[in-house]
Predict the 3D structure of the following.
Amino acid sequence: MKKNIIYIAVSMIAAAFLLSSCGKSNSEEDASAHREYLAVGLSNSSHKWSIIDKEGNVVVETEYPTTGASISNVFDDVYWVRSNGRCQLFSVNQPNQPLLDEEHAHAADFIYCGYTFVATRKQPIRIINTKGETVATLPESIRECHSFGKDGYALVKDESRNFGVVDTSGKMTIEPSYSKLAPLGDGIFLAELHQFLDAQGNVLGEIDPQKYAVTNLGMEKGKMIVRNADSRQCCVINQRGEELFALPMAADASPYRGGYAAFRDASDLWGVLDDDGNVAVLPQYPMLFNVGGGDFIAMANGGFGVINAKGETVVGFNYEGFDVEKLGENFVMGKSYKYMIVNRQGKELATFKKIGQIDSPVAYYQR
């Protein structure tokens, strides 16, 4: 998924919110802690990607061509450069020489831990570490592998299109046997949209489909937000499928992240809920995005800014767009078709013209 600034067009923002709040597990809470670098084009005339750090300093300058090449998420200083159907592993400390002689047809990003999957043509998918060392080789029947979560587990799909789970050692902790399987974080998975499993495949509980509708895929500290089928309001359940408490003001809500959830009321305004379901910020924003760490991108007076979980303004509402993940503890904002790194004091640390990072969280078996 290309890391582009989201601009004010409502359809674009709505689509981005769906991706950021309903398609990700809460394991992404720590993503910004590891997102220390970003691939960028420093100017419109630049024909090569550079890499900046979280303070906006250029650490790799004009090294990779912008045409036909993309840069992955940078984790613990290493990243993939994808070009002409091949993937090569580089480091910010050695940007002009691949860490490995070997090239891969597919490579999932290092996102939350120091392990990922690579696929070489006519070879089984392998697990490697950030040094490029092979940790395990998976059975040839495994045809698709998703990036590891911070809990050390990853989804895999076999030749029968069934999903299972593997750990960083290559052990298949849940054999591929489910047509639908989603990671919720903390070693918990949702099978067939109604059954909670632990990482070993043991059934923890079930969601009653007659009573609750699954509206997003995220669980934090054993709490998952669903919608009550009768009241059409949101509530919180645990991994046994038991209702913990109702959210009477919430017609919709994003998953908990960092102890808070963004929620929408009946008047289509967004606010913030705390871990116990109490209203931390009253609904008042047409749009609100939980970016972790108690921070929220909010829209007010036609512009975007940042608030905290107390409703205090962190970054003023004078931007036209934003990225849905932080860079360290700073924010990636946009205006006048430029991007900038903005710190918590509202100071713009760096300005650039293009974002070159394209996330690729899946590796595929290559015949």
User: Anything to note?
Assistant: The chain has one domain: 6-364. The CA atoms of residues 46 and 62 lie 8 Å apart. The first strand starts at residue 6 and ends at 7. The chain has two helices and 37 strands.
